[in-house]
Design brief:
By secondary structure, this protein is α/β, with parallel strands linked by helices. It has a single domain, classed as STAS domain (Transcription Regulator spoIIAA). Helix 1 runs parallel beside helix 2.
């Protein structure tokens, strides 16, 4: 996984399939605990999503909300998007098509807020 500090207040994390997904999410949660910031999760390299991955996304969402931070998910393929829709997670997470759009949306949100 690549965790990039895009700015002082935004991290871009590029995730991959399990078992790395679990390790990557744990490392990301630890980094956010040390330095609270907004997060863009790029799922472009994630080919499938199981219940364990979903649980980790929900845990990270809870951590982000408790710190009054924002998380945008981007790059989900059709299979991953289908899982997110069937589970109803498309209604609680914020999504964009790609990293550029997510970063623009994040920046606009920071200006308005």
């Amino acid at each position: 996984m690549a965790i990039q500090n895009w700015s002082d207040s935004i991290i871009v994390a590029e995730l991959s399939d399990d078992p790395q997904f679990s390790d990557e999410m744990a490392a990301l949660a630890e980094q956010i605990a040390r330095r609270p910031c907004n997060v863009v999760l790029n799922l472009q390299a994630v080919g499938y999503m199981n219940s364990s991955c979903i649980a980790k996304l929900l845990r990270l969402r809870k951590q982000m909300l408790s710190g009054d931070r924002r998380m945008i998910i981007c790059g989900a393929n059709n299979q991953v998007w289908g899982v997110l829709m069937v589970t109803g997670l498309d209604k609680i997470f914020e999504f964009t098509k790609d990293i550029s759009t997510a970063l623009a949306k994040m920046q606009l949100g920071n200006i308005v807020a």
